[in-house]
User: Fold this.
Amino acid sequence: MIEFILNTIFWTLAIYGLFEIIKNIIYIGTYTKFKTNGIYIIVAVKNQEEKIEGFLRSILFKILYGREEYLKNIIVADLQSTDNTKDIAKRLAKEYDVLKVTNWKDCKDVIDNVNEN
Assistant:
């Protein structure tokens, strides 16, 4: 009797695992299409050293741990800040791959090269 129960549990889990593998294969095929054509966020900032880290971390949290799988990159374009805004953004960019920091003049080049990244 115990052998029958264990076999039933084993085969139930095996069939469930097979369905999950098939579902993941189908999901990965559709997911990669969205990922390559992802949404890019451009944040233009100037002299926001007190607010920039909290703002970027809240967006990053939604991307990394939430349901925002369509977002591909966050581009921070600095508008010639005179405070530490750009340094804070660069420090965060070292921690997170989806975050790119540039100045406003180079932002157009980043936009033009989105397809190459």
